[in-house]
């Protein structure tokens, strides 16, 4: 079997008017579905074959807004569902400019949870779906979303983890190549 890390992806500007950039790759899924582990594996793989890549997580608990979210998630504060939703969105907004700069400079961002988790979390608590999407309009849209809908037990029973990682790497490399070849940035839920 061929080692997929030896595969080369072709990155060449198809159109000189298009800007090469990094890819915005988001992993979503249930708790304990392996998102964080897969993010780390993807980051390591991309870096090992020469791509500039970073791993980000939302909520980002290192920011001022993130610290309020952290207090809520650790039951140290009690916030209204609307308030926590807006804080989760604000946490993504406070990182948006830096995300765009990184992407435009050629750095691929692997994101462990993003806007989809925030909207799903709040709408599952009974908030109106359209209301939940509204503060997300204008955030950068991912180039690829990988939703891990599988329990660790199911992975062990069905498919060796190496095969899962290989498939994820293949999908992400195709996306990274498209972005390096000039795919434009887009925004969430554009009207």
Automatic annotation (TrEMBL):
Nucleotide-binding keyword on record: yes
GO cellular component: cytosol; mitochondrion; nucleus
Any Pfam family: Thymidylate_kin
Stored Gene3D superfamilies: P-loop containing nucleotide triphosphate hydrolases
Keyword flag DNA-binding: no
Enzyme Commission identifier(s): 2.7.4.9
The Thymidylate kinase-like domain, residue ranges: 27-153
Keywords: ATP-binding, Kinase, Nucleotide biosynthesis, Nucleotide-binding, Transferase
Entry's Gene Ontology BP terms: dTDP biosynthetic process; dTTP biosynthetic process; dUDP biosynthetic process
Pathway: Pyrimidine metabolism; dTTP biosynthesis
Any one GO molecular function term: ATP binding
Family indicated by similarity: Belongs to the thymidylate kinase family.
UniProt-recorded name of the protein: dTMP kinase
Organism, scientific name: Chenopodium quinoa
């Amino acid at each position: 079997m061929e080692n997929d890390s030896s595969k080369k992806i072709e990155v060449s500007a198809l159109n000189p008017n298009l800007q090469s950039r990094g890819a915005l790759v988001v992993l979503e899924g249930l708790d304990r579905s392996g998102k964080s582990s897969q993010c780390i594996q993807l980051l390591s793989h991309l870096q090992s074959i020469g791509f500039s890549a970073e791993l980000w997580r939302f909520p980002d608990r290192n920011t001022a807004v993130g610290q309020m979210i952290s207090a809520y998630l650790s039951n140290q504060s009690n916030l209204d569902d609307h308030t926590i939703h807006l804080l989760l969105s604000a946490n993504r907004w406070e990182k948006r400019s830096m995300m765009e700069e990184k992407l435009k400079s050629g750095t691929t961002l692997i994101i462990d949870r993003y806007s989809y988790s925030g909207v799903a979390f709040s709408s599952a608590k009974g908030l109106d779906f359209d209301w939940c999407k509204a503060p997300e309009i204008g955030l950068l849209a991912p180039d690829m979303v990988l939703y891990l809908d599988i329990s660790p037990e199911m992975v062990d029973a069905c498919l060796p983890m190496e095969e899962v990682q290989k498939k994820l790497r293949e999908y992400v490399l195709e996306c990274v190549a498209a972005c390096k070849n000039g795919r434009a940035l887009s925004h969430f839920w554009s009207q």
